[in-house]
Structure formats: C-alpha cells, structure tokens
Amino acid sequence: MKPKLLVVSGPSGVGKGTLLKRVFAESGLPLTMSVSATTRKPRPGEIDGVHYQFLSTDEFETKRNTGEFLECFEVFGKGTWYGTLRRTVEQGLSAGNWVVLEIDIKGANAVKKQFPDAVLLFIEPKNIEVLKERLLGRGTETEEAMQRRLATALEELEHAPEFEHRIVNDDLGVAVKQFIDIIKSKA
Q1: Is 108 in contact with 120 (CB distance < 8 Å)?
Q2: Secondary structure (DSSP) of 75-127
Q3: Intervals of the chain under pLDDT 50
Q4: What is the DSSP string of 7-49?
Q5: Listed residue (23, 27, 2) closest to 186, CA to CA
Q6: Are the C-beta atoms of 4 and 111 separated by less than 8 Å?
Q7: Alpha carbon 73 to chain centroid, angstroms
Q8: Which pLDDT belongs to residue 135?
Q9: Helix, strand, or coil here: 168?
Q10: What phi and psi values does residue 134 have, to the nearest 5 degrees?
Q11: What are phi and psi of 68, to 5 degrees?
Q12: Tens digits of per-residue pLDDT, 1-29?
C-alpha cells in the first residue's frame, strides 16, 4: 500500500482535531500527523514538537528563504507565520506512513500543486450557527478574534467545493466513518 499525503482543511472550530483523533484510533492505517511550524508563542500546555514546532521569526524566515516549506503563510497580517516543513512530510512518507496535514485552504492549494496525488478533505459544519456556538464554547477568544475567525470561516466555506472530498461534521461517528471510507478507497 503506497503511503499517501492527506490534507485536511476546514474552518476553525469545526472539530478537525477531534475528528482526526478518532480517525487515527479507528482507521487501522499507518497514519502520522505532520506537526506544523509557527512563529507564535506556545499557549499554556502546548509542547514544542508535539502541538507545533515553535520557531523564532528569524528561524522561520531562514527556512522560508531556503525553500524548506511545502507551504507557509502569514496569518491575519499580524506577523505570525505558519507552515509545513517539507522534510517532515518526506520523512513520514519514506517511513511508509500516510502523512496528515491539518492546514488552511491556501496551504492545501499550495501542497496540491507539489503533490498532485494528495487527498484533500474539507471538514465543514452543519451550518454557520453551529460553528459560532463551537467557537463561543471554547471561551478562548476575544470578541475581536472571534469575529475575525468567523469572517475567515465564511471565506473558507466558499472554497469547500474546490476540495475533492467534503465531510459535514454534524454527527462525529458518521463523519469518522465517512473519513475512513474515503481514505481506504485511496489505498
């Protein structure tokens, strides 16, 4: 079975992380998560190399300038960068694993250009009201950040038709089954 690159996108708060935990536990496939790099500071409880690869702005810029990223973008125009290191993906694939990227739409499009056989999955909410409730339920965002995330979510939802696979994360069990069925069909 040839390892694949799986690219998972969707708006913040849609439940991508919860869905992926279940897929990893239930799929039976050799899945590995690619840990993104960022210039933002760790939040309480986040561990370098587990949640993100936390880089200084200078480290990130050096890697960006030397072409070490498959994709990288400045987020919200505030000097915070996120990206996927090419080395991490290539090591995972070489080890025979299916590498999972949880990235935004711009990143997904950039990766697809370099890995045309990547499997792109878009996770979406039942509706925008459900998404608002999930974001509010987190209790981690300022009102300004919440409005920015909602505006970004609406923009991202407009791009959902560009993805070859779309999953509505309304019933987690159903969404997990759909996700696993999609990736097993690619095996």
Answers
A1: yes
A2: ETTTTEEEEEEHHHHHHHHHTTPEEEEE--HHHHHHHHHH-TTPEEEEEE-SS
A3: none
A4: EEE--TTS-HHHHHHHHHHHS-S-EEEPPPEESSPPPTT--BT
A5: 2
A6: no
A7: 13
A8: 75
A9: strand
A10: -65, -45
A11: -85, -5
A12: 789 999 999 998 899 999 999 999 999 99
Cα–Cα distance for residue pair 156/176, rounded to 1 Å: 21
- Decide which of 3.30.420.40, 3.40.50.300, 3.40.640.10, 3.40.50.1450 is the CATH code for 5-185: 3.40.50.300
Q: Which two tokens stand for residue 99?
A: 């590498």
38: which strand partners? 54, 82
The whole-angstrom separation of Cα 32 and Cα 42 is 22
pTM for this predicted structure: 0.89
Distances from the Cα of 33 to the Cα of 5, 7, 117, 140, 159, angstroms? 10, 10, 18, 24, 24
Q: Is the dihedral of CA 150, 20, 83, 113 positive or negative?
A: negative
